[in-house]
Amino acid sequence: MKKVITYGTFDLLHKGHIRLLKRARALGDHLTVCVSTDEFNAEKGKHAYTSFEDRKYILEAIRYVDEVLPESSWDQKISDVVNNDIDVFVMGDDWQGKFDFLKDYCEVVYLPRTEGISTSKIKKDLGVPD
Ligand code: C2G
């Protein structure tokens, strides 16, 4: 079984997120999504509208997602890849090159982001603070 992993906040889920998950899943037979905890989001300088529990619940309902795990640190990716027997690590290309250190452990793929949509844009268009 070819296992794929990806990471993110996935707040205010939108088509860009779904397209990423769909393309990531298509690279293998199983997709693990590591969703940022509320505490880790604070470390990332992000404030998610939706709680970790609810973002996890929503992701688990997506047909392309097989497993959802917490992302609580920048430093967990190597152990995640090794401990979960991951073959492919996937991120949107806004992260191009940032995770190339994982090439020693698995294939690393950066997929083109979906243009014109983002959680920040949604918040801006709704007139709420980012
Ligand atoms: N994404 C995309 N197109 C968009 C918006 C997001 O392809 N229009 C992708 C991002 O590139 C990322 C994933 O969707 O691969 C999740 O995006 P975010 O929730 O914004 O994740 P981020 O805050 O970048 O967290 O350790 C990695 C971090 O947790 C990534």
TrEMBL record:
Keywords: Nucleotidyltransferase, Transferase. Its EC number is 2.7.7.39. InterPro entries: Archaeal_FAD_synthase, Cyt_trans-like, G3P_cytidylTrfase, Rossmann-like_a/b/a_fold. GO terms for molecular function: glycerol-3-phosphate cytidylyltransferase activity. CDD domains: G3P_Cytidylyltransferase. SUPFAM superfamilies: Nucleotidylyl transferase. It holds the Pfam family CTP_transf_like. Residues 5-124 form the Cytidyltransferase-like domain. It is an enzyme of class 2 (transferase). NCBIfam families: cyt_tran_rel, g3p_cytidyltrns. This is Glycerol-3-phosphate cytidylyltransferase. It comes from Lactiplantibacillus nangangensis.
